[in-house]
Amino acid sequence: MQRRELIDWLICPDPGPLLAAADRRRRELHGDAVELRAIVELSSHCRCDCLYCGLRRSRRGFRRFRLGPEQALATVREAARGAGTVVLQAGEDLRLDEARVSALCAGVRAAGDSALTLSLGERPRASWARWRAAGADRYLLKLETASPRLYARLRPGHALADRLGALETLRELGYQVGTGNLVGLPGQGAEELADDLLLLQRLDPEMIAIGPFLPHPSTPLAGAPAPRLLDLTLRCLALARLLLPRAHLPATTALGALLRGGRELGLAAGANVLMEDVTPLAFRRRYELYPGRALVEEPLALRRPRLDARLRELGRRLASGRGDALPRALHPPASGGPA
User: Fold this and answer.
1) Whole-prediction pTM value?
2) Domain residue ranges in the chain
3) Which residues, including other chains, have CB under 8 Å from residue 21's CB and lie 6 or more apart?
4) For the chain, what is the mean pLDDT?
5) 273-277 and 33-43: which strand pairing?
6) In the predicted model, what is the mean pLDDT of residues 190-208?
7) What pLDDT is recorded for position 299?
8) What is the pLDDT of residue 234?
9) Does domain 3-7+18-318 have CATH number 3.20.20.70?
């Protein structure tokens, strides 16, 4: 699809044909299985001062945390027992150094055959290489926006070109790469969202995380929610599925925070992944990326049957296995839009 066609789908009165086409394309390539990712949040400390994030460096008045090595390892093992992929996530906390993260990578490897995704921000190439050697399979590093101007405003002291270079480095090191954008940022319209999607198509990542921007009340962007936020997020998900059919697309936890049943709507718009947080509840409450996050205390192994039952009501089911990316050569990006 060309830029004009993407814009038209983002603003047209009826997105029904778009969402249906994305759901068909998802079924053709990925079937009805939904991949499960277990998220472990290691630290709420961050060196960055992004305007949109509740973990921003200059935010005061909340208790940050950093999981101790033993507690982190125990949580990682629980995650590996419950899901085909473990995601280790944190703010850009340099106390999570090469040795500490490498030990957690080894812990995932020892716990079974789960894949391991890291989402720890921009790091030196040497750190990424060491973690890859220690067993990390994937790395998630979101773009947030394809606009260099908007990126520089939202992430003071950072440049979009550096983020793109980091994604290239990760791919050179052999990671399956994940990235994505936020929908509803101040100053972002249909044209900017179309540019986001075209950049994602050029990057051709293995995973694309597209979520709604939910302004945290303790950030400079508090009180700046976008109109049509759910609608636009679902349209972007659907367009991403058509542009990049082989990619894994999560129905993000932010969709669930935006609307009860939001994740189910995401699954119907082309998504094929669910993310479940397994961070100990006392710490999860203090990982305040955005308001309204789900706080389920039940261990993931006990959540699985309920998740599977709910998915079967929707004609879907939980997948088994690691959920690796489909081969790029077999599934090139689509060129056309909905029929």
Assistant:
1) 0.95
2) 3-7+18-318
3) 238, 242, 337, 338, 339
4) 93
5) parallel
6) 97
7) 86
8) 98
9) yes
